[in-house]
Design goal:
The chain is an alpha/beta fold. It contains ten helices and eight strands. It is globular.
Length: 255
Amino acid sequence: METLPKNGSISTVIHSKIATIAFGHPSGNSFPSTLLKDLTTEIESLGTNPNITLIVIKSIGNGAFCAGASFDELLSVSDLEQGTVFFSRFAHAINAMRKCPKLIIGRIHGKAVGGGVGLASACDYALAHQSAAVKLSELTIGIGPFVIEPAVSRKIGKTAFAEMSLSADEWKTAQWAKEKGLYAQVYGTIAELDDALAIICEKLASYNPEALQEIKKIFWEGTENWGTLLYERAAISGNLVLSDFTKNALASLRK
């Protein structure tokens, strides 16, 4: 894996009407607040760019796709306001993806945890490598995947979400995620994944942009309340992270 800056990086390449956003962070491609804010801003900006039809989101390297929010920042939360702000960061990103008029395609090359599962779920279409297992581990530290639940449940349904969230210490395979609807396809090699990604992106970029925008609206029907719902969920997690259970769980992880 290439050497990444301490605070991670976000970069975008535009080619043939396709904007590819690549994010990375030394800690499992996790998201500190500044990096997540940059991702949100980039999605919002690309959504207004008349020269692109499609957005691809991927992460850097050959390890995890995304380890979720920054664990170091979670450890530093000391009051309800900080906690709510912390958990609102993925709410901002998911809402930006939801409201973006461009279709967003996810390239999920490796494992996704917590907020990383939320990010994959908020893509309009996701292709994955066979190593792209998923896990919602939040209950193990006394909180829950509240902010990302609407995005995850929208893709896999409440029953599969319950299975994931209650099996908080277990990985679900990429094939399981495909069967539940999170991934459209799963590939055995990275080369196959990238070939398939190139084919679908080329096809979609050739379609009428206005038609793609209209069909995306249909995909997201019924999510209009997320502008308030996700932030209400952030407050739940912001409160729970201050509980004795979570403080003790986090303290044990420091050791």
